[in-house]
Amino acid sequence: MSLLVTGGAGFIGSNFVHGWLASSQAPVAVLDKLTYAGNPANLAAVQTDARFTFIKGDIGDRSLVEKILIDCKIRAVVNFAAESHVDRSIHGPADFIETNVVGTFNLLESVRAYWGRLDEASKQKFRFLHVSTDEVYGSLGPEDPQFSEENQYQPNSPYSASKAASDHLVRAYHHTYGIPVLTTNCSNNYGPFHFPEKLIPLVILNALAGKALPIYGDGSNVRDWLYVTDHCSAIRRVLESGRLGETYNIGGWNEKTNLQVVQTLCSILDELRPRSDGLSYSTQITFVKDRPGHDQRYAIDATKIHQELGWKPAETFETGIRQTVQWYLDHPDWVAGVTSGSYRDWIQTQYGQ
Ligand code: NAD
Ligand code: DAU
Minimal CA–CA distance to 154: which of 255, 12, 296? Predict the structure, then answer.
């Protein structure tokens, strides 16, 4: 089975490619537009692997996608490609509609054309796995039960609305055209290759640079953190054995407030890379203006994927967060590569002085 991984040069996509090539013989083609978030360095370790092909391009480019599907004899598509940062969607939603909605539509159209020409056995085996987010379900109150697959969609940001729209399109292509689709809705990921616009890598790098550690509002917002390789193993399970047309929630049973996350990062850094003045990195914590429409709490009920497919995370928050900090300390070249140029413009736009 040849696999097409869209958005494979991004954070989760690149971790998925590494995990796939380590656990399967099947070839992988990556299609990635290489936006600010796409980074060839994330795939440097597999560049010379004969099973790996990289194509720079847009999921919305139908002729390119159809050519890849045919030339690489693709038997499954895993769609990670997206604009993924909530704050950027607040500053400029247009790219989110273009890639997450229109791009997914065009990708589905390319798949529909290709799948329609396959023989019956290949049609049956084909899979389109759409990687989505828990943010489509909206925001929970402190006492609400976690999001299950039955929750209503109530997206609150341009990002989550665009992901919700893409989920609906994927569902419709199954019901209307019979495309064999699977959708996963995962909670917050963290780990290697995470672009430092997101909370965890931003805080690690700002701490080491002696900069403020910006916490929106009062830091009481809750996220359910999952180590990225656990998300990737869940996707492999769903691809292998998920029931067609179904959605599977993926989460780590690790609810933390943002303040708890940042304090944990500070104490690990205090231990692994103490500040020269002996003070804790937590003295750099700064409360800043809240994100507009900031969702209060996300939490995933991962019972379905556990009971149906036997998946559970391998890492706890404590083991995963320590490995993550160590990874950033061990990869100064990667950090230098992603924190130049347009990254600085974004930090200036979002955080000002
Ligand atoms: P990311 O921003 O790190 O990577 C996205 C990748 O998609 C980049 O390599 C980018 O170049 C590529 N891309 C963007 N537009 C494209 C286009 N039009 N055509 C081809 N490639 C394009 O994102 P991520 O954090 O790795 O998230 C991957 C997917 O997982 C997204 O769909 C996101 O919604 C979903 N997700 C993310 C999280 C999380 O915590 N990061 C959690 C749940 C779901
Ligand atoms: O829940 C899954 C989602 O998780 C994914 O779909 C998104 O692609 C991914 O970006 C992530 O969204 P969040 O908005 O939850 O992640 P982010 O890292 O941007 O923020 C995490 C929390 O930290 C959130 O409550 C906002 C807060 N925050 C974030 C930044 C960047 C801060 O307090 N300060 C910051 O500087």
Answer: 296
* Residue 199 alpha carbon to ligand 2 centre in Å: 6
Does the beta carbon of 197 sit less than 6 angstroms from any atom of ligand 1? no
The 10 Å CB-count burial string (b at 16+, else e) for 221-246 is: bbbbbbbbbbbbbbbbbbbeebeebb
Active site residues: 134-135, 159
What is the full DSSP assignment across 156-177?
-SHHHHHHHHHHHHHHHHHHHH
Say if ligand 1 is within 6 A of residue 80 CB.
yes
CB-based burial, 5-30: b 16+ in 10 Å, e otherwise: bbbbbbbbbbbbbbbbbeeeeebbbb
Q: Is the beta carbon of 196 within 6 A of some atom in ligand 1? A: no
CATH 3.40.50.300 fits 3-191+228-252+295-315, yes or no: no
Q: How far apart are CA 73 and CA 113, in angstroms?
A: 14
Alpha carbon nearest to ligand 1 atom 17, residue: 58
Judged by its nearest atom, the ligand closest to the C-alpha of residue 295 is 2
DSSP 103: I
User: Is 141 a residue whose pLDDT tops 60?
Assistant: yes
pLDDT (tens digit per residue) in 17-46: 999 999 999 999 999 999 999 999 999 999
Alpha-carbon distances of 264 from 46, 55, 317, 320, 334, rounded to whole Å: 32, 39, 10, 12, 23
